[in-house]
Amino acid sequence: MMLQGCTPWPAETAARYRSDGTWRGESLGDLLRSWARRNGSATALVKGERRLSYRELDERVDRMAAGFLRQGIRPGDRVVLQLPNVPEFVIVAFALFRMGAKPVFSLASHRASEIRHLCELSGAAAYVVPGTYRGFDHVALALRMLDEVPALRQVFALDAPGGVAGVTPLAEVDAEPVEPPPADPSDVAFFLLSGGTTALPKLIPRTHDDYAYQVRTVAGICGLTSADVYLAALPVEFNFTWGCPGVIGTLASGGRVVLAEDPAPDDCFAAIERERVTFTSVVPTVAQLWLEAVEWGAADLSSLRMIQIGGARLQPELAARIEPGLGCRLQQVFGMAEGLLSMSRADDDPASVLETQGRPVSPADEVRIVDERGDDVPPGAAGELLTRGPYTLRGYYRAEEHNRRAFTADGFYRTGDVARLTSEGRLVIEGRLKDVIIRGGDKISAGEVEGHLLTHPRIARAAVVPVPDEFLGERIYAFLVSPGERPGLAELKQALHERGLAEFKLPDRVEFVTAFPLTPLGKVDKKVLAAAAMDRDAPREWAQEG
Ligand code: AMP
């Protein structure tokens, strides 16, 4: 049974996935136990000087799972998990899997606005924070959330200053292991966040069955073995880092996971050299930084056999520089936290690795490319990508109305991506229908930023669009209408910052106009605005009419 508020797969489809062995009825908490039995003393996790063997990881997870139960966290409770790339992220997540609570993976960069929303939407009973991280006091934020969100009962902190009332240090979430309540593999294991087409992120329920299948399939495609060493360069809470095959796939293969502080080349190159890292996953912006750093310094990246690049469009010119520059194989990855993953394969011809996003990872992935009416386009033509399959969600959590628009009646997820299929069945991502900006791999919902801008007393209208950027891929450009004195960019950024919006969502540029261009149906014409953002000298006739 899936948690209430989630949409299960239709019974016959689920039965088929079970009978053909796609879903094996394994829970992630039990899987860790079997990996620990197999690889006991091998190193599972590394962060700087700290190393944890599989056995230590499993034992710590057992004790923490019992500790959470003793602290009053119950199976089925939602727990917002906000930790940077530290071993505790993995320990807390697996402890919650094991005792049946459901972590909600928040980004470490989220602030009050996003955290309040995640706590309220998930009905979270608890919130796990680092302490002060990168100059931000997460404990203070957590205490504020305890005040503001009635359902939130508890806060756990990795580095809690001594004796703060209402905050339990994670180290105290520790008890003699108990037999955990039996996990239902068809139930939600954790929640990922949607890249956000709506004003606020939606929650993506991922079940034990579907995620175990995703990870197993992708680890197989990548040929992972116990000799592999994975560098988690991007945040662990990203689906890309966590399970494509990432952290979980490496643990499932008996390999070693190295957690980087951030994706900057100095830290990552040192870790690659020291730990003899064999593969990693980054967004195109990071890949570009790494290529530049290689040209500047003498890094030993000889242990790397593969780099996965995804999360945002990889320009073919940049793709062509990867293998010669980093000395390892490139794997293109197109994916989404909602499910569908498409990847190039080791035996793909070089041109298709540079120019396409490969093939869906599962033979059971169903992919359609449709026109505005929802009809299949002719072979090779571009259209919206729809998908369903054994690891693609059937509905966002507690989002009935949005789900009616985001899914077809027969359960296909409307990705909002524009794609075409080559004659060999490879996907090429051409663009996007959804109102999202992808800035260096971070997804920003235009509607969310617009909503915050509109709370400023001197902003009457706001329309946020992407503007191409050589380094970040896209930047955030805000068109604004202001009836009186116009606030400057710095003032607006400060106002959004004070509203608790994560830093990466702040506009890079603003432009004041007197009116917005409209489509024939009277909606703001964002295509016209996006074109105008690219050409600041072009006349803004539409702005003069209003
Ligand atoms: P997320 O769920 O945050 O991983 O975001 C998923 C979205 O990122 C997709 O729906 C695409 O819009 C975009 N995306 C991911 N990978 C690629 C890629 N290789 N090329 C272009 N866009 C991508």
Automatic annotation (TrEMBL):
Residues 448-523 form the AMP-binding enzyme C-terminal domain. Signal peptide: none annotated. One of its GO terms (molecular function) is acid-thiol ligase activity. Keywords: Ligase. Residues 33-397 form the AMP-dependent synthetase/ligase domain. InterPro entries: AMP-bd_C, AMP-bd_C_sf, AMP-dep_synth/lig_dom, ATP-dep_AMP-bd_enzyme. The keyword Ion transport does not apply. Pfam families: AMP-binding, AMP-binding_C. This is 2,3-dihydroxybenzoate-AMP ligase.
